[in-house]
Specification:
The protein is an alpha+beta fold. The chain has two domains: 53 residues, no CATH class; 138 residues. The protein is built from three helices and nine strands; from the N terminus they run ααββββββαβββ. Strand 4 and strand 5 form a beta hairpin. The N and C termini lie far apart (63 Å).
Length: 215
Protein backbone atom coordinates (compact mmCIF):
# COMPACT_ATOMS: atom_id res chain seq x y z
CA UNK A 1 0.00 0.00 0.00
CA UNK A 2 1.47 3.36 -1.08
CA UNK A 3 -0.30 6.64 -0.29
CA UNK A 4 -3.65 4.89 0.00
CA UNK A 5 -3.19 3.00 -3.28
CA UNK A 6 -2.49 -0.68 -3.86
CA UNK A 7 0.85 -1.35 -5.51
CA UNK A 8 1.86 -4.80 -6.86
CA UNK A 9 4.26 -6.81 -4.73
CA UNK A 10 7.84 -6.62 -6.00
CA UNK A 11 8.48 -10.22 -4.97
CA UNK A 12 6.06 -13.09 -4.45
CA UNK A 13 5.05 -13.52 -0.77
CA UNK A 14 5.16 -16.87 0.99
CA UNK A 15 2.35 -19.37 0.33
CA UNK A 16 0.58 -18.78 3.64
CA UNK A 17 0.63 -14.99 3.10
CA UNK A 18 -0.78 -15.31 -0.42
CA UNK A 19 -3.45 -17.70 0.83
CA UNK A 20 -4.47 -15.35 3.66
CA UNK A 21 -4.65 -12.33 1.33
CA UNK A 22 -6.63 -14.24 -1.30
CA UNK A 23 -9.09 -15.54 1.29
CA UNK A 24 -9.65 -12.09 2.78
CA UNK A 25 -10.04 -10.39 -0.61
CA UNK A 26 -12.60 -12.92 -1.89
CA UNK A 27 -14.56 -12.69 1.35
CA UNK A 28 -14.70 -8.88 1.28
CA UNK A 29 -15.45 -8.70 -2.46
CA UNK A 30 -18.47 -10.96 -2.05
CA UNK A 31 -19.74 -9.24 1.12
CA UNK A 32 -22.58 -6.87 0.26
CA UNK A 33 -22.73 -5.23 3.71
CA UNK A 34 -19.02 -4.65 4.28
CA UNK A 35 -17.93 -1.03 4.78
CA UNK A 36 -14.99 -1.13 2.38
CA UNK A 37 -12.28 1.53 2.06
CA UNK A 38 -12.10 3.59 -1.14
CA UNK A 39 -9.01 1.76 -2.37
CA UNK A 40 -10.68 -1.67 -2.26
CA UNK A 41 -11.94 -2.69 -5.71
CA UNK A 42 -14.55 -5.47 -5.72
CA UNK A 43 -13.15 -6.57 -9.08
CA UNK A 44 -10.21 -7.96 -7.10
CA UNK A 45 -12.31 -11.15 -6.96
CA UNK A 46 -11.56 -11.55 -10.68
CA UNK A 47 -8.32 -13.46 -11.15
CA UNK A 48 -6.84 -11.13 -13.78
CA UNK A 49 -7.59 -7.98 -11.73
CA UNK A 50 -6.23 -9.57 -8.56
CA UNK A 51 -2.93 -10.52 -10.19
CA UNK A 52 -2.56 -7.09 -11.82
CA UNK A 53 -3.13 -5.18 -8.58
CA UNK A 54 -1.49 -7.57 -6.11
CA UNK A 55 1.46 -8.74 -8.18
CA UNK A 56 0.74 -12.44 -7.63
CA UNK A 57 -1.96 -14.97 -8.50
CA UNK A 58 -4.89 -15.83 -6.27
CA UNK A 59 -3.86 -18.71 -4.02
CA UNK A 60 -6.58 -20.90 -2.56
CA UNK A 61 -5.64 -22.63 0.73
CA UNK A 62 -5.41 -26.40 0.66
CA UNK A 63 -8.36 -27.75 2.59
CA UNK A 64 -9.22 -31.11 4.08
CA UNK A 65 -12.91 -30.54 3.31
CA UNK A 66 -14.61 -29.75 0.01
CA UNK A 67 -14.03 -26.17 -1.07
CA UNK A 68 -17.10 -24.22 -2.12
CA UNK A 69 -16.10 -21.68 -4.78
CA UNK A 70 -17.31 -18.13 -4.42
CA UNK A 71 -20.20 -17.02 -6.60
CA UNK A 72 -17.94 -14.87 -8.78
CA UNK A 73 -15.60 -17.78 -9.45
CA UNK A 74 -18.45 -19.75 -11.02
CA UNK A 75 -19.86 -16.97 -13.19
CA UNK A 76 -19.01 -15.37 -16.54
CA UNK A 77 -20.79 -12.03 -17.01
CA UNK A 78 -20.38 -10.00 -20.20
CA UNK A 79 -22.00 -6.65 -20.97
CA UNK A 80 -22.03 -5.22 -24.47
CA UNK A 81 -19.24 -2.60 -24.39
CA UNK A 82 -20.76 -0.58 -27.23
CA UNK A 83 -18.89 0.57 -30.29
CA UNK A 84 -19.18 0.41 -34.06
CA UNK A 85 -20.65 -2.74 -35.57
CA UNK A 86 -20.42 -3.46 -39.29
CA UNK A 87 -23.95 -4.26 -40.52
CA UNK A 88 -23.33 -3.47 -44.19
CA UNK A 89 -25.72 -5.36 -46.45
CA UNK A 90 -28.27 -6.21 -43.79
CA UNK A 91 -31.74 -5.01 -44.77
CA UNK A 92 -33.93 -5.55 -41.70
CA UNK A 93 -33.52 -5.21 -37.95
CA UNK A 94 -35.74 -6.68 -35.23
CA UNK A 95 -35.71 -5.43 -31.65
CA UNK A 96 -36.83 -7.99 -29.08
CA UNK A 97 -38.92 -7.34 -25.95
CA UNK A 98 -36.96 -7.02 -22.71
CA UNK A 99 -38.76 -9.93 -21.00
CA UNK A 100 -35.98 -12.35 -20.08
CA UNK A 101 -37.67 -15.70 -20.40
CA UNK A 102 -40.44 -15.41 -22.95
CA UNK A 103 -40.93 -19.01 -24.11
CA UNK A 104 -40.89 -17.89 -27.76
CA UNK A 105 -40.55 -14.49 -29.40
CA UNK A 106 -41.24 -14.39 -33.14
CA UNK A 107 -41.22 -11.96 -36.04
CA UNK A 108 -42.73 -12.30 -39.49
CA UNK A 109 -40.91 -11.14 -42.63
CA UNK A 110 -42.23 -11.19 -46.19
CA UNK A 111 -39.77 -10.93 -49.10
CA UNK A 112 -41.04 -11.04 -52.67
CA UNK A 113 -44.02 -13.17 -51.69
CA UNK A 114 -41.98 -15.54 -49.50
CA UNK A 115 -42.92 -15.58 -45.82
CA UNK A 116 -40.28 -16.08 -43.14
CA UNK A 117 -40.76 -16.52 -39.40
CA UNK A 118 -37.84 -15.78 -37.08
CA UNK A 119 -38.24 -17.37 -33.63
CA UNK A 120 -36.11 -16.90 -30.50
CA UNK A 121 -36.86 -19.42 -27.75
CA UNK A 122 -35.54 -19.13 -24.20
CA UNK A 123 -37.77 -21.06 -21.83
CA UNK A 124 -35.84 -20.91 -18.54
CA UNK A 125 -32.45 -20.10 -17.04
CA UNK A 126 -31.11 -23.62 -17.50
CA UNK A 127 -32.23 -23.98 -21.14
CA UNK A 128 -29.87 -22.94 -23.93
CA UNK A 129 -31.73 -20.46 -26.19
CA UNK A 130 -32.69 -21.53 -29.70
CA UNK A 131 -32.95 -19.63 -33.00
CA UNK A 132 -35.34 -21.06 -35.59
CA UNK A 133 -36.20 -19.66 -39.02
CA UNK A 134 -38.97 -21.07 -41.18
CA UNK A 135 -39.69 -20.33 -44.85
CA UNK A 136 -43.34 -20.84 -45.75
CA UNK A 137 -43.60 -23.09 -42.63
CA UNK A 138 -40.53 -25.16 -43.59
CA UNK A 139 -37.61 -24.99 -41.12
CA UNK A 140 -34.51 -23.69 -42.93
CA UNK A 141 -32.39 -22.85 -39.88
CA UNK A 142 -32.44 -24.22 -36.33
CA UNK A 143 -29.46 -23.45 -34.12
CA UNK A 144 -29.09 -23.45 -30.36
CA UNK A 145 -26.51 -21.20 -28.75
CA UNK A 146 -24.24 -24.00 -27.50
CA UNK A 147 -21.39 -23.30 -29.93
CA UNK A 148 -21.62 -19.57 -29.23
CA UNK A 149 -21.54 -20.16 -25.48
CA UNK A 150 -18.64 -22.62 -25.81
CA UNK A 151 -16.69 -19.87 -27.58
CA UNK A 152 -17.60 -17.35 -24.87
CA UNK A 153 -16.44 -19.68 -22.07
CA UNK A 154 -13.23 -20.51 -23.96
CA UNK A 155 -12.37 -16.83 -24.29
CA UNK A 156 -13.85 -15.68 -20.96
CA UNK A 157 -13.83 -18.58 -18.44
CA UNK A 158 -15.82 -18.52 -15.17
CA UNK A 159 -14.57 -15.75 -12.92
CA UNK A 160 -14.48 -13.23 -15.77
CA UNK A 161 -16.60 -10.09 -15.73
CA UNK A 162 -16.72 -7.44 -18.44
CA UNK A 163 -13.50 -5.50 -18.82
CA UNK A 164 -12.21 -2.85 -21.20
CA UNK A 165 -10.48 -5.41 -23.44
CA UNK A 166 -13.83 -6.74 -24.69
CA UNK A 167 -15.01 -6.04 -28.23
CA UNK A 168 -18.61 -5.64 -29.37
CA UNK A 169 -17.97 -8.44 -31.89
CA UNK A 170 -17.53 -10.86 -28.96
CA UNK A 171 -21.28 -10.60 -28.32
CA UNK A 172 -22.39 -11.30 -31.89
CA UNK A 173 -22.98 -14.48 -33.86
CA UNK A 174 -23.90 -15.02 -37.51
CA UNK A 175 -25.76 -17.78 -39.36
CA UNK A 176 -26.36 -18.29 -43.05
CA UNK A 177 -28.87 -20.29 -45.08
CA UNK A 178 -29.41 -20.51 -48.81
CA UNK A 179 -31.94 -17.70 -48.56
CA UNK A 180 -31.00 -15.52 -45.58
CA UNK A 181 -28.03 -14.34 -43.49
CA UNK A 182 -28.67 -13.57 -39.83
CA UNK A 183 -26.68 -11.52 -37.33
CA UNK A 184 -27.52 -11.72 -33.61
CA UNK A 185 -26.31 -8.96 -31.26
CA UNK A 186 -26.48 -9.48 -27.49
CA UNK A 187 -26.69 -6.85 -24.75
CA UNK A 188 -25.71 -9.25 -21.98
CA UNK A 189 -24.47 -12.83 -21.66
CA UNK A 190 -24.11 -14.68 -18.38
CA UNK A 191 -23.21 -18.30 -17.69
CA UNK A 192 -23.39 -19.47 -14.09
CA UNK A 193 -22.25 -22.90 -12.92
CA UNK A 194 -24.47 -23.57 -9.92
CA UNK A 195 -22.53 -25.92 -7.60
CA UNK A 196 -25.50 -26.42 -5.27
CA UNK A 197 -27.89 -27.85 -7.85
CA UNK A 198 -25.18 -29.07 -10.26
CA UNK A 199 -26.73 -27.22 -13.21
CA UNK A 200 -25.67 -24.45 -15.57
CA UNK A 201 -27.80 -21.33 -15.77
CA UNK A 202 -27.81 -19.04 -18.79
CA UNK A 203 -28.95 -15.50 -19.33
CA UNK A 204 -28.72 -14.15 -22.87
CA UNK A 205 -30.32 -10.76 -23.49
CA UNK A 206 -30.71 -10.45 -27.24
CA UNK A 207 -30.60 -6.84 -28.39
CA UNK A 208 -31.17 -7.07 -32.14
CA UNK A 209 -31.54 -9.51 -35.02
CA UNK A 210 -30.29 -8.32 -38.41
CA UNK A 211 -31.47 -10.05 -41.59
CA UNK A 212 -30.38 -9.88 -45.21
CA UNK A 213 -31.60 -11.78 -48.26
CA UNK A 214 -28.99 -13.86 -50.08
CA UNK A 215 -29.18 -13.54 -53.84
Amino acid sequence: MTAGTLTPAESEPADDVREAITDAVLFLADSEDADLPDWFDRKLSIRSDFEKQMGFEQTIPKRDFPYKPSDSEMRTSLFNPGGILDIEGYQWSFQLPRARYEPTTSHELSINGTNYTIEWSAHSRNDVPLLRITKDQEIILEEDMNDFLDGILSEYPPGYHSESDMNIDDLTVTYKTEHLSVLLVFDYVEVYLDPNDDIINYELTLSSIYIKENR
